[in-house]
Amino acid sequence: MKLFIYDTTLRDGAQTEGISFSLDDKLKIVRKLDEFGVNYIECGWPGSNPKDMEFFIEVKKLKLKHAKIVAFGSTRYKNIKIEHDKNLKSMIEAKPDAITIFGKSWDLHVKDALETTLEENLSMIFDSIKFLKENNFEVIYDAEHFFDGYKNNIEYALKTIEIAEKAGANIITLCDTNGNTLPMELTSILRKVKDTIKIPFGIHFHNDSGVADANSIIAINEGAKLVQGTINGYGERCGNADIITIIANAILKIGCETTIKIEKLREISYFVSEIVNKVPQDNHPYTGISAFAHKAGVHVSAIVKNPKTYEHVNPVLVGNERRIIVSELSGKSNIFAKIKELNLDINLIDSEKLQKIVDIIKSKENSGYHFEGADASFELILRKEFMNYKPFFELEGFKIIIDKDEKGFTKSEATVRINVKGNQEKAIAIGDGPVNALDKAIRKASEKFYSVLKNVSLVDFKVRVIDSGGGTDSKVRVLIESRDEKNEWTTIGVSENILEASWQALLDSIEYKLIKSEIINN
Known about the structure:
Radius of gyration: 29 Å
Shape: elongated
Number of helices: 17
Number of domains: 3
CATH topology of the largest domain: TIM Barrel
CATH class of the largest domain: Alpha Beta
Structural class: alpha/beta
């Protein structure tokens, strides 16, 4: 079954609290969605603001391979002639590849929101679609509040989509605009729609009842040819149907044919979340970092034997990867699988050695360490305990001075003394804060010996108080995320002193990078 993917992140997704797209943001996302294989990209309402109209000028300069650029707007205003409607004119002037207009299906909205008659609303739908078709546009008609309208007045709701078909709409999208419809209500409504209109229908669900994705899949199974949604489910109130989850289910579970490059699913999910400055949801289906993470020993033991025991699909298919979690709950199965995953040269047949690793991890976590999100530090522990590890340098001491001037501005100065290959090195650096200064100083002292460190940057720094009841004497856990030109890794430090904990995490980060570079070069 052929399925067309219609993305409305740039229009409906832009209505999310805290999300605002710049012109450059929108153009970047359009390029990425086109590479991903999306069929329709709804890009905004040309008549609503100057920024959207400017976008439609700039987007024409892109050479897209798959996607049609869609302008969005409403049916004509009540009681005016079609040629006088500024909204419809602005959509035509934008010169998109297709136009989506919405009209009212719910008699309550016609009376209370539009404050017009039911007959005038039908004329507004017919006139608008006919006008756009006469101007040679592909027209997608969004039947707004269709399901609520159907439940309130079946005859009228169906009449609105009949009139849209008669006017020449290419496809009619049934919208659950309030997110009020439950899965058990859908099938009978959709089958009635198929008996009423002959042209294809699409669907557009909101997630106010938490079932937008499920409803979308049911509709696809009932014959919907087009599905609308947003990346990661962004949208007003509780969000829209999540096009990421829908695509995966439609392709992998139903067997739909699409132009989507499903192996880029995780990439597009994270790309958009980065642009909108939203933290990716760890447990997001298919693409979250925890979507294929296994922690329970029983699960891991089974996964090693056959991944199908606890994975509903192969993570590689959607651009994700399997992760084995190591924690104080870990048994030998977790450690065994993790060592294989990291490709470390440790004798796994030696049961005493394996038990010793388990004991070390449990002891570390008992003192405050947390390796679920710090694979790099976990690998370093194993290398130091069980492999021929040689430190790249030795710390002789560090000092940090925090200075606040009369204007209230603070600066941090770090001095680091290390021994590198028999050479005494000292470096001083100033940073925005003590950890930033310490990071700069240690790399300044070691970069002339290890040039690969020039490509490493600290991208995230998290602090958590472990035992808050201890007040200022409490232990803190510091997680540092680092990045080079290709990879990211996370390291951890624990201490009653936040600077000592930060130092541990920084040192692990640098040592991890040097080990990986040494392995590659050898």
